[in-house]
Recover the amino acids of this structure.
């Protein structure tokens, strides 16, 4: 579960960093607002990826998903990208749990 979730957060962090110039140039948001918001979410995504050993990493990752979707109010394409990454996030958690359960069942059978 952790590896899938970290992949989602890593790719999402790239998107969050790249949306900064879009907010400044296309959405006409002041750099003093756009940089802390977008790069703050970028850093939060990386920190969450590093903390995925703990429950706090998943909580922070979920906060990043809410923030990414929320950016859609400023840059409408972020509704699509944010919802896509939020879907990937949920899928990574659900599929990751299933994979871990299958591994445990397999180990119990063979062990």
């Amino acid at each position: 579960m952790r590896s899938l979730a970290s992949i989602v957060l890593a790719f999402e962090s790239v998107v969050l960093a790249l949306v900064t110039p879009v907010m400044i140039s296309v959405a006409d948001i002041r750099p003093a607002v756009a940089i802390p918001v977008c790069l703050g979410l970028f850093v939060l995504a990386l920190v969450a990826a590093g903390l995925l050993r703990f429950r706090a990493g998943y909580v922070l990752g979920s906060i990043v998903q809410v923030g990414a979707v929320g950016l859609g109010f400023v840059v409408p394409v972020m509704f699509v990208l944010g919802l896509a990454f939020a879907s990937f996030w949920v899928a990574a958690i659900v599929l990751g749990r299933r994979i871990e359960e299958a591994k445990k069942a397999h180990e119990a059978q063979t062990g």
